[in-house]
Amino acid sequence: MEILLIAGLWLDGTAWDDVVPALEALGHRPVPLTLPGQGDGSASATLDDQVAAVLAAVDSASEKTMVVGHSAACTLAWLAADLRPEKVARVALIGGFPNGDGQPYADFFPIQDGTMPFPGWGPFEGPDSADLDEEARRGFSSAAIPVPEAVARGTVRLTDERRFDVPVVLVCPEFTPAQAKEWVAAGELPELARVKHLDYVDIDSGHWPMVTRPVELAQLLAAATAEN
């Protein structure tokens, strides 16, 4: 199956460099996506530009595809299900949850000179980054791409309730499946609460398993493609 890989904030398609060969070895066709404004040199990109890039990748596939979103990009993966429910076979969400209609995409950190730069490791101390050594942290920080303001503060628009028919697998890294189930039951994740086929899988990692557990993550994603 073709598997579209969308990394979260400050990352481009190279974030999946260690996941891609592992997925290929398992017989899949991974397509890592570099988003407008996050690797193509365009600081003026908007959320609509990123959505359009995701849809172009979905539309170019010869068959239904699995769309994988990491962190904030879980919302991009969910937008693909909303806008192309007939072409998305499954959505995989890694370490994040889709925002609802009318919410900002990723207005999490201060904007500086029209972009949202990586804020440093302070906000991510604890389970998020516990499995990243100093070398990995330095590499991430030096390669981090500031996210355009019009992306971070863009408004999410969801229009097609057929998205809830698309199966979803939630990969739980710095939190557990039990915690995620509690959040869904408590009404904290309203989009996921309405998904008809929602599976939870655990991975023993921090927030960036594509860096620290790439082979295991590839195995989990491959397994998800075979689920009913």
TrEMBL record:
Annotated signal sequence range: none
The keyword Ribonucleoprotein belongs to this UniProt entry's keyword annotation: no
Keyword Hydrolase in annotation: yes
Residue ranges annotated for the AB hydrolase-1 domain, each copy included: 3-219
SUPFAM superfamilies linked: alpha/beta-Hydrolases (SSF53474)
Molecular functions per Gene Ontology: hydrolase activity
InterPro entries in the record: AB_hydrolase_1, AB_hydrolase_fold
A Pfam family of this chain: Abhydrolase_6
Keyword terms: Hydrolase
Domain of life: Bacteria
PANTHER family (alphabetical): EPOXIDE HYDROLASE (PTHR43329)
Protein name: Alpha/beta hydrolase
Source species taxonomy: Bacteria, Bacillati, Actinomycetota, Actinomycetes, Micromonosporales
